[in-house]
Amino acid sequence: MKANVIGLGIWGRGMTSYADLQRVLELGGLPADAEFLAPKPEAIPARERRRAGLMINLAVSVAHQACEHAGVDKASIPSVFVSSMGDTDITDYMCRKLTQPEKLLSPTKFHNSVHNAPSGYWTISAENRAPSTFVGGDQYSFGAGLLEAVSQVQASNTPVLLVAYDIANQAPFADVTPIGESFAAALVLAPPDAPGVGSELSVSVQLQPLSIAQLQAQGRAYSKVSAPGLDELAAQNPMAGGLALLEQLVNLQQTQTKSAELVLPAASQLALVLDLQAVQRNASNPQTAQVN
Amino acid sequence: MVYVNQLTLTSALGAGLDQMRASLQADHSGLSAAEWPHCDVPCYVGAVNLPVEISVSAQRLSRNNRLVEYALQQDNFAAHVAAAVSRYGAPRVGIVMGTSTSSIDRTEQAYREMGQEEHFAEEFIQPRTHNPHAPGDFLAERLGITGPCITVSAACASSAKVFAVAERWLQQNLVDAVVVGGADTLCLSVIYGFHSLQLVSDEPCRPFSPQRKGISLGEAAGFALLSNEPAELAVLGVGESCDAYHMSSAHPEGLGAELSMQRALAASDIGMQDVDYVNLHGTGTRANDETEGKVCARMASAHTVFSATKGWTGHTLGAAGIVEAVLSMNAILTDLVPGTMHTSCAEPGLPILLESVERRVNTVLSNSFGFGGNNCSVVFARA
Question: CA-to-CA distance for B165 and B161, rounded, in angstroms?
């Protein structure tokens, strides 16, 4: 299975755009004092925006970023949203309220508690009526979502938006699955033979499923983030695999390296081997020739 | 198109297909006045009589996972999957589960027992249970499946959308067989959540009745085993869309619902005149039924009959897609179209079946629409 990555979005400590990630990698790492800025996506209509919490704002922000970076039509791109834990702020709110005698829930918090809430806010903000889904895959979520998105690209022969995120949690959730930092990433994946769009980025990704047994037999391990500081962020969020992929994608754009290989988990017994290749631009297409 | 090799359903209509068919034949609804622990909302629910001896490991313990386990034991479903696993190999079988509640019943219990403390008691430290993927992950372990495994959670469209994923995986030769399904449990989050939106009826739900007062919640787990091996039933095509309108209200003209139905027909390469029966989403709320009714009236052919089955099972939310998939395929297998239980007269505009009828059924379209404006329609057919 194959697709081209043509756009990125990112939000995490010290990073609110693709350009920030480029700068972090150019400078050799994420500074220890980099701060997490709360996203406030202007794209969400005001009426909806005041109802959205951190997770929705994170997901919708990176979704818009990636589409703008790729230069694709926001109103028609199908989307795959993926999170390991979902909105634990809302789960905590609901479960606490339900321990009280009157059990009065906010209707807004309730409708935001569905795991496809970020997809709902995204589709409203982008006026998008294409198929949209949410995929849960526990700690394997990023790979599971990537497989699903690339499968959709192949079936529909159109670009597909992948949005991956998890938010920081506190006790009691932190006792179960601790998440120390919030992080979100988005990718626009396009058919491999699609004509160039207005993006500076184009990296082909070939996906090869590999069983855990084969992985171990070959003595291979999952890929990790390598830049200092970013590795600490990756250790604090289940979407670490997404950050590892973004790091490689930017490296392929910034250095003379033309290819890279990554291994990410996609299910409890399934790995994905990702073969990344920087795509040669068509020099006659001024929109995509700028990198070469 | 992909084939449906095995089916099972455990809902308020009974455990397994035989009990479900007996309830349908006897015109026996699964709804009863709620006697749910810690629940003071006056309402009717479609509860599953889950035997206490149905158990899962301590790490997996939740009502939702126990419901999954109970459903797997019906109709020899687990044994049929085991045969597929040994035939194709564990890495060549996939899982696509649908849920909205996942194991939130267990999380609610953990908070109740936590009281004023800051931390869960030891028995509730269950990392593989307190998350959206709990049912899919449990299923993989229980069935010894090592291929791709995801849990789709798109509110009430969840376990309809699983058919789209599975069809793609099979067409792309990622796997040779896929277990699809859905599981949702009754819990305080959904009862009090829908109550906060004033959408829970204090009587058994009456979809498409002019006197309808809202939904009756339910719980269920069901599965289908899909492959390219020819069988009596097939998934012809799936259509998906979003409303891009509002988080909890459907688009007033049903723009997303119509797109979803049109896309399902297009994917199946048929028209509405080829559809014998439409299993409506039909929740029983004023706005949803009105919108879906408008869309179906716009699209209806003279030949097609419509019914809503949530008066039989309750609205099982994330499991509604698989519940209604099984009821739709059962109509093909038995030539019995279920009526719209509890509805004695329907809103004008659509040929709504009130009573169950015997009718030759070859092709069924099933609608599932959810919060977030997420819509899915699936076409099932006699292969």
Answer: 7
CA–CA gap between residue B169 and residue B157 (Å, rounded): 19
Pairwise CB contact (< 8 Å): A131 & B128 = no
pLDDT tops 50 at residue B136? yes
Residue B235 sits in which domain range? 2-382
Nearest CA in chain A to B148: A267
- B89 Cβ neighbours under 8 A, 6+ residues apart: none
* ipTM (interface pTM): 0.98
Quick check: A186 and A246 in contact, CB under 8 A?
no
Please give the torsion angle defined by the CA atoms of residues B297, B300, B303 and B305, in that order, rounded to the nearest 10 degrees: -60
Q: What is the DSSP letter of A111?
A: H
Say how many domains are in chain B. 1
Q: Closest Cα of chain B to A144: distance in Å?
A: 7
Cβ-contact B159, B320 below 8 angstroms: yes
Supply the range of the domain harboring residue A134: 2-291
Helix (H) and strand (E) counts in chain A: 11, 8
CB distance B154–A126 less than 8 Å?
no
Residue B125 CA to residue B312 CA, distance in Å, equals 36
What's the pTM value of the predicted model, to 2 decimals? 0.97
How many distinct structural domains can be found in chain A?
A: 1
Do B373 and A123 lie within an 8 Å CB cutoff?
A: yes
- Where residue B236 sits, what CATH number does that domain have? 3.40.47.10
Whether the predicted pLDDT of A289 surpasses 70? no
Are the Cβ atoms of A95 and B152 closer than 8 angstroms?
A: no
Q: How far is B53 from chain A (nearest CA, A)?
A: 27
Q: What is the CATH number of the domain that holds A258?
A: 3.40.47.10
Q: Are B47 and B29 in contact (CB under 8 A)?
A: no
Give the least confident one: A186-190, A198-202, B309-313.
Answer: A198-202
Q: Which residues in chain A have Cβ-Cβ distances shorter than 8 Å to B161?
A: 133
Contact residues on chain B for A107, CB-CB shorter than 8 A: 193, 196-197, 248
Q: Check if the beta carbon of residue A96 is closer than 8 Å to that of residue A31.
A: no
Looking at beta carbons, which residues of chain A come within 8 Å of B150? 135-137, 144, 148, 267
Can you say whether the dihedral through the CA atoms of B150, B156, B160, B161 is positive or negative? negative
- Could B130 and A123 be called an inter-chain contact, meaning their C-beta atoms sit closer than 8 Å? no
Residues of chain A with C-beta less than 8 angstroms from the C-beta of B169: 151
| Residue B5, φ and ψ in degrees, nearest 5 | -90, -30
Select from B107, B165, B372 the Cβ nearest to the Cβ of A95.
Answer: B107
Angle at A119 between CA A147 and CA A193, to 5 degrees: 40
Report whether B221 contacts B97 (CB < 8 A).
no
> CA torsion B169→B370→B306→B32, rounded to 10°?
110
Under 8 Å between Cβ of B310 and B362: no
Q: Which of B302, B278, B277, B303 is nearest to B292 (CA)?
A: B278
Would you call A98 and B247 a contact, using CB atoms and an 8 Å cutoff?
no
Q: Do B133 and A136 touch (CB under 8 A)?
A: yes
User: Chain-wide mean pLDDT for chain A?
Assistant: 92
* DSSP codes of every residue in A224-275: ---STTHHHHHHTSTTHHHHHHHHHHHHHHHSS--EEEEEEEEETTEEEEEE
Q: Is B301's pLDDT higher than 70?
A: yes
Task: Please write the tens of the pLDDT for every residue from A9-39.
Answer: 999 999 999 999 999 999 999 999 999 999 9
What confidence tens digit (pLDDT) does each residue in B70-112 have? 999 999 999 999 999 999 999 999 999 999 999 999 999 999 9
Contact list in B for residue A51 (CB cut-off 8 A) is: 247
